[in-house]
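Bit of a strange request maybe. I'm writing a small parser for structure token strings and I need a real example to test against, not something I typed by hand. Could someone generate the tokens for this chain?
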Amino acid sequence: MKKHTALLVEDNLDALNLLRATLESKHPNLTIINTAQSVVEAAKAIRKEEPDILFLDVMLGDGTGFDVLEIFPKLHSKIIFVTASDEFALKAFKFAAIDYVLKPYSDEELSEAIQRATQQLQPSKERLEILKETLVAPEKKPDKISLHTLDKIIVVGLEDIIRCESDSNNTKFYINDGQMVFVTKTLKYFADMLKTYGFLRVHQSHLVNIKCISAFIKTDGGYLMLKNGENVPVSVRKKAEVIEILDSMHR
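Reply from user aminoacidic:
Good idea to test on real output. This should exercise your parser:
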């Protein structure tokens, strides 16, 4: 098995020691070349020897993990972000489609993160910007979302999404430029993520951008007419909620 070098950047000493101990005991294919507890220490360590894998805490005492990345714009290390179990942080990572591990670390989670890190390409600058912006201003509506397809990750504007449709355990995103993006996550995953940003689950198989709704048609069981001319069914149990939301928009 190929050995990889690792640098651990974590400002909490207990968390740093736990991570180091877990990696040393459970992952002998990783050689920990150094540890750091701040942006300054991390920068010195990376300049000395760039690691194969960089375990990078989001929040550091003298800045953030993004400050480390800005110092080294051409960094070749694979990045594994580590973060506390914070709902805003988790939302940010989901919008950017960037992997992370939660503190305290489970061995299974670490193993999966290391495997992904050694196999995948680095997140693009645009996806890192989405992550950074969403973390810095969690109360602000994100402008963009990263969508994981089978072979690439596409960044689209939230305003450009017309609707989403379930396809087994996958989701089809219909964008206003006419393209359809097939994403390898469930509709429930995106319904939970987008429900506070103007998207409404109107049916077991359909999630709709409220701004794209033209009218609710009560005949034929009830369905939505969208501004692009498409029709989307509304389930019986969702009908009252849909009517209430549409009425509130026109008050």
